[in-house]
Amino acid sequence: MGLAKRIIPCLDVTGGRVVKGVNFVGLRDAGDPVEIARRYDREGADELTFLDITASSDGRGLILKIIEEVAAQVFIPLTVGGGVRSVDDVRRLLNAGADKVSINTAAVHDPQFVKDACSRFGSQCIVVAIDAKRVVGAADLRWEVYTHGGRRATGLDALEWGRRMQSAGAGEILLTSMDRDGTRQGFDIELTRAFSDTLEVPIVASGGVGEIGHFADGVLSGHADAVLAASVFHYGELSVAEVKAHMASRGIEVRR
Amino acid sequence: MNTIAVVDYGMGNLRSVAKALEHVAPQASVVVTSEASVIAGADRVVFPGQGAMPDCMRELELRGLRAPVLAASKARPFLGICIGLQMLFDFSEEGGVAGLGVFRGQVKRFPTDAMTGTDGARLKVPHMGWNHVRQEFDHPLWAGIASDSRFYFVHSFYPQPEDASIVVGTTCYPFRFTCAVARDNIFAVQFHPEKSQAAGLALLRNFVDWDGCAPARPSATAAIA
User: Does B194 participate in catalysis according to the annotation?
Assistant: First the structure.
């Protein structure tokens, strides 16, 4: 009896529609975000994450409208990320009904932004998203932070960056393996465990889920506090209820 | 008409609370307000809170809302949520700030060490996610909700009441702590009913229907582990 491990479907949104990319390139089409959010809620999703993948410039208002609609019908925590650059962006998303806002590229450009957002709105609603990629040929196991949807290397050591973001006040880390994202080979367990065992704040594992056992692996081997996936849920290959039943069968505490 | 004032003192997202109340009580009038007169005129008052307690106390004072909130807490059905619960106590370790003193006791931080689960796994702070809430006493706000139902939590501090008789709900993380208190017309919870799906909506529905009368309590005090 204790805190349940969280299962979080992720909705990648662009132009008001939900899509899922493969390695962040070549998007396949999908569906209505409000309908999908309600379906996940009925299936027992513990939270929902919306990633605005066209957040770069225009179409920014669309995600606000989607969040407003979802928040009026779905009463579980909602996290929104993608293109969040300013305290004003955070405020707009929270006012639209987001419970947590995830900051990625902008945190690397300006770590003070994370501090400002945490002191203004509280650590409980600020998630720092880290896209990490293994450093090939390094003497020890380490990962580098990438930004701009995984296109730009930063030179930052991912674990060190996670520590800094925790100190800056981040209440949670959304950790995506760029090596695994879209591959369906499972989470990068070593990456996930390195973060989970080092940091005090909860870690959401992301990137690579392709089959039902991967969720439990993320918790049992990766020590993740929450597991996130997009395409396996989105294309109906797995339901949240099936995933929870499987995790429970492997001894993991889930909300049912 | 049943009017519900959600007290707005400029800290965080109140939309979730308002939306959830509108959802369970479409016939009620839900007003997010920082007007003392609106709070004073409402049939029931919801006192939410997010962020850090020192900031919440400061903003509450700046907006002149201490007196209206205290008045409401003495008179009408009153629901505190998260920092809204913590602010009802005497004092918080977060920033070493005084609260409203409605309840005797302190708000403590989860220790940075000794946070280990029964399986030996390290427990994270903030306590974030769905955890069981054990109902320590019957209360109209628990009606229709099974004891040990899961509610959504996100917090690093928890209340430690001096008076065990106000404790109506507890949770383990990893030790048992108080997550719901009640006395007379006040009910306050550390978790977020507005984000706790069916169980949370049931609690809010119960609040909307509540006459503000607390049930008779056994004189013996609860044993809090």
Answer: yes
Q: Does the beta-carbon distance from A77 to B152 stay under 8 Å? A: yes
* Residue A124 to residue B16, Cβ atoms within 8 A: no
Q: Is residue B32 part of a domain?
A: yes
Span A66-101, pLDDT tens digits: 999 999 999 999 999 998 999 999 999 998 999 999
B160 in a structural domain: yes
The CATH number of whichever domain residue B82 belongs to comes to 3.40.50.880
Count of pairs with CB atoms under 8 A, one residue in A, one in B: 115
- Beta carbons of B129 and A226 less than 8 Å apart: yes
Listed residue (B216, B80, B76, B193) closest to B145, CA to CA:
B193
Q: Considering its fold, how many domains does chain B have in total?
A: 1
| Domain coverage including residue B167 | 3-209
Q: What is the pTM of this model?
A: 0.94
Q: Is there a domain that residue B24 lies in?
A: yes
User: Predicted ipTM?
Assistant: 0.93
Domain annotation covers residue B224: no
